[in-house]
Design brief:
The structure holds two protein chains of two kinds. Chain A is α/β, with parallel strands linked by helices. Chain A contains eleven helices and 14 strands. Chain A has two domains: 214 residues, P-loop containing nucleotide triphosphate hydrolases (Rossmann fold); 63 residues, Alpha-Beta Plaits. Classes of the chains: A alpha/beta, B mainly alpha.
Amino acid sequence: MQQLHIEANQLTKRYGSFTAVDGIDFEIAPGESFGFLGPNGAGKSTTMRMIAATSLRSSGSLDVLGLDANDNGPAIRAQLGIVPQADNLDEELRVWDNLFVYGRYFGLPRKVVRQRADALLDFAQLQQKRQARVDALSGGMKRRLTIARALMNEPKIMLLDEPTTGLDPQARHVLWDRLFRLKDSGTTLVLTTHYMDEAEQLCDRLVVVDEGKIVAEGSPKELIRTYSTREVLEVRFGTAKNEEAAGRLAGIGDRIEVLPDRLLVYDDNGEQALTAVGERGLHPVTSLVRRASLEDVFLRLTGRSLIE
Amino acid sequence: MTDVRPRMLAGLYARNTRSVVARGMRVIARNNWLIIVTGFFEPVFYLFSMGVGLGALIGSVQYHGVDVPYAAYIAPALMAVSAMNGAVYDSTMNVFFKMHYAKLYQGMLSTSLGPLDIALGEIILALFRGLLYASGFMVVTTLMGLNLAWTAIFAIPAALIIAFGFAAFGMAITSFMKTFQHLDFVFFIMMPMFLLSATFFPIDVYPEPLQWVIMAMPLWHGVDMIRMLTTGIFEQAMIYHLLYFVIMIVVGVFFATRRLKALFLR
């Protein structure tokens, strides 16, 4: 069997009396695409920083590519491509220089670094911006440059912390496309996100994290199958009436969630559930039948919606 | 790996300080000429106002029993102060800003660099800046005829030794800082040190206990060391000045290395 790329046992990080990551276990295999899904403050970024060996764990064990993360920062990071949550490009350098200088931090020869910088500018679709100042780039361009930069050392593992947060839909799809290509080329992807669609698109397997703990684990499909029905009926009766309507809908579907602005009826057949609602003499202002998503899984597991 | 690095440095050093220095040089070459130039002018302005202006009223000052023109008396002190200021500014304000605001170190630490590579790189860059300032200042003082002996040329390495001592200490202190306000403490100490360390007048005007306090401070040793070199008036104290900075550097580097994890790996 091939060696695991990342292996964590009872991994814990405490800041004073606050426990950011609370004894989590996970294993990531080579070539796998693995996600940490959870709301802000769940401990995802802290976990990523521990994997990158830029934050030291408080207890438990963490091996990255067979090396203990607390003692082997440089050796581990030589094999990692790190894309942080907030872009931290070198604003004092131009676009191409950002790639060149970054490559040199890995101790790679100048010639190799020059070749890769040019190839990656193509990959990031930034050839026309090679002499531009970093602060003149759009959000999507900065993000692509950050990813290109992270690829300078041809990493075995990419760590992507909220890769598409704050991007418009189009920029997001461009980025997803680039990440798919990496995945196809066999790079292990580890990403955090609080976007359900992103997790569904990119992850083979994921863990749902909440308050520093793992609350569920599986492929997106498995999680949806285990924690939700195949379809979901969303109905709105108007803010004041949702609660009251929920009482009268009892018995329809597997389960009903009351959100501030709408009701979610979990049923494998959403249309059937909608008919049943009508038969009880209720007429929602709007109704929508959709496929279940990880958002539903999260709601089920934590009782809270992901984006608050 | 057959590495026998001490345990304390585990995961902290990748022997690639060079790339951090190269990055700094690239930035200086492309953008930062202005900062370098302004840093050079600061002691020059002091020299013109105090040395030339006040000097016209004061005439000369006794230094180890020899009369020295006032401008020639304060020029070496200004050089020591400028070495201190540059090093402290670079190792506190600049490091703190790059750490928490520009996130430069966060980017560097996404690579195989370790904290020690970065810390050494920053210290070397600070020293390079110090070298530029000191050399520039030497040119000015030589043109003004303020260097009274050929040994003045050694004032440049002396300024670097002073800068190294302050930079190593400054970096260690920065590791304890949480907000920009904490930096005020540093400047609260530097200000009186600048004004009182025999910079503008001999310290024997003070009562003896206060003289001892001043002589315990690093800047006084720096000032007196450079002054001996530029005036050519040597005393045995020279050895103690050098020793003071050697110890300051050793302790500072040790202390800063110990604090690297606190500084970079939170």
